[in-house]
Write a structure and sequence with these properties.
Blueprint lengths: L2 H34 L1 E3 L12 E3 L10 E2 L18 E4 L9 E5 L4 E3 L6 H4 L24 E5 L2 E7 L4 E4 L14 E3 L14 E3 L14 E3 L14 E3 L14 E3 L14 E3 L14 E3 L14 E3 L4 E2 L8 E3 L4 E2 L5 E3 L7 E3 L8 E5 L9 E4 L4 E2 L15 H10 L3 E4 L6 E4 L2 H8 L11 H36 L2
Parallel strand pairs: 1-2, 3-4, 9-10, 10-11, 11-12, 12-13, 13-14, 14-15, 15-16, 16-17, 17-19, 18-20, 19-21, 22-23
Antiparallel strand pairs: 4-5, 5-6, 7-8, 8-9, 23-24, 24-25, 26-27
Helix pairs in contact: 3-5
């Protein structure tokens, strides 16, 4: 064998030995790396125990593959992408632009950074260019949207139970109650099974538990209500202490504030029905109206400080400033300073305490004098269709009229006079046969007196004539 051929063959053998040795070393290193993690660096340090791959370099970085995605659902450019696959997208036409993306199993999702966060989520410092059709805060299912402050429930929109709460601790203890709306700190905080309630204001409907269909608007409105239902309170402390009353309506600061079990009451005005706690069916309009009533029922007051003067009267009505009622089943119009009452007119004439209307359709101006006498309208300018009467015929009718002593049923009030039926049949006056006016008997009496005067004059003339004849006959 030539020398040069021998040398070449020996070189090849040595080279193969070196390659084999390197492969053995690489396998040993690779086995060690698979067990401990792979470290790529320039200082020879091993990979950190927690890392499968530990790359370290003082002036170089890791270059991620650059890909031009067609869309955020593109599975053609990279077929069958694995969940968590990381790339850098170069296509700025994607909705979220270029940048680092990872495959989340359904789409390519862009990594959020401080600079692009406003484009990927709602910014706590405000947002711009939003589209109301696609940008919103909320859920995509029927789960409630919940808000908290200091880790305490402060807002909830529940599409299943139809409950809506805003304000710290409002609606905090709701269980099965539905269709409730609470706004304000602790509004409706105790409601559990009650439904259809609306509370607006701090601690409104605070203790309501099972009550339903209540509406409270104002700080502490219906505060103590527990089981009462269908109450409406508007104003600071309105119906504050109501616990189980129902069908009450209060509008005004402290209106019906002390009510606990009373029902069917209506109060409008500052402190109206303030102290009512069990009264039923009371209606008060005006500042402090029926303020002192506690247990009385079916009282009505309209006016400043109007109402019963006692706390347990029933079925009273007071109308006007400071109008007070002191007995059951009584109506009062005005206080003792009022000296005129007008019906159908704007004011009364002088010396008229009470006056009614101006024409034949509304009272025609009849009035009560300040001295207490009822006066019928007799102005000739308000009369028509006059006709003369036969006085003698009138006397005959009076003569045939039954005049008796009688009393009204259910009373001990006795009177003397005819019945309305007999009176109407005889004289055909008034509007029907159920009553007798004060003017007709007076007119009939005057005409009868005139007829009697005429007869008296005639009799006197006859008497004088007879006396003259007697004198002549007797020569006296």
């Amino acid at each position: 064998m030539p020398l040069n051929s021998f040398v070449l063959s020996k070189f090849k053998i040595d080279f193969m030995k070196q390659i084999l040795a390197l492969c053995v070393i690489w396998l040993l290193i690779n086995k060690h790396c698979l067990a401990q993690g792979l470290s790529i660096n320039t200082d020879g340090t091993a990979a950190h125990a927690s890392a499968m791959l530990d790359i370290k370099n003082p002036n170089k970085g890791l270059l991620i593959p650059r890909v031009n995605l067609v869309s955020d659902s593109d599975v053609v450019t990279i077929p069958g992408p694995r969940v968590s696959l990381l790339i850098y997208n170069n296509n700025v036409a994607l909705p979220d632009g270029d940048g680092y993306y990872y495959w989340n199993g359904n789409k390519w999702s862009k990594f959020a950074t401080r600079t692009n966060l406003a484009n990927l989520a709602w910014n706590t410092r405000g947002n711009a260019g939003t589209n109301g059709n696609i940008n919103f805060i909320g859920t995509l299912d029927d789960k409630p949207l919940v808000f908290k402050t200091n880790n305490i429930l402060s807002g909830k929109i529940d599409p299943v139970s139809d409950n809506t709460f805003f304000g710290q601790s409002s609606g905090l203890n709701i269980t099965t109650g539905s269709s409730n709306t609470f706004y304000g700190n602790s509004a409706g905080i105790s409601t559990t099974t009650g439904g259809g309630n609306t509370a607006i204001g701090s601690s409104a409907l605070h203790y309501n538990s099972t009550g339903t269909s209540n509406t409270a608007t104002g700080v502490w409105a219906l505060h103590d209500n527990i089981s009462g239902y269908q109450n409406t309170a508007t104003g600071y402390l309105a119906l504050q202490k109501n616990t189980s009353g129902f069908y009450n309506a209060a509008t005004g600061v402290m209106a019906l504030m002390e009510n606990t079990t009373g029902h069917n009451n209506t109060a409008m005005g500052l402190t109206a029905l303030l102290n009512n706690f069990s009264g039923v069916g009371n209606t008060a309009f005006g500042f402090a109206s029926i303020q002192d009533n506690e247990t009385g029922d079916f009282n009505t007051a309209i006016g400043y400080f109007a109402g019963p003067s006692l706390n347990s009267l029933n079925n009273t009505t007071a109308v006007g400033y400071n109008a007070h009622v002191a007995s059951n089943n009584t109506m009062v119009f005005g206080d003792y300073f009022v000296d005129r009452w007008a019906f159908g007119i704007s004011t009364t004439s002088a010396q008229h305490a009470l006056e009614v209307g101006v024409n034949g359709n509304n009272g025609n101006g009849a009035y009560l004098t300040q001295g207490g006498t009822w006066t019928n309208t007799c102005d000739i300018n308000k009369k028509e269709d006059f006709s003369s009467l036969d006085g003698n015929d009138l006397l005959q009718k009076i003569s045939g009229l039954s005049i008796q002593r009688w009393k009204y049923k259910g009373t001990n009030e006795y009177h003397i006079g005819p019945t309305a039926q007999d009176f109407y049949k005889a004289f055909i006056v008034g509007t029907d046969d159920k009553g007798i006016s004060t003017i007709d008997p007076a007119g009939i009496s005057l005409l009868a007196i005139q007829e009697l005067i005429k007869e008296n004059k005639s009799l006197r003339a006859e008497l004088d004539e007879i006396r003259d004849l007697l004198k002549k006959a007797t020569g006296q």
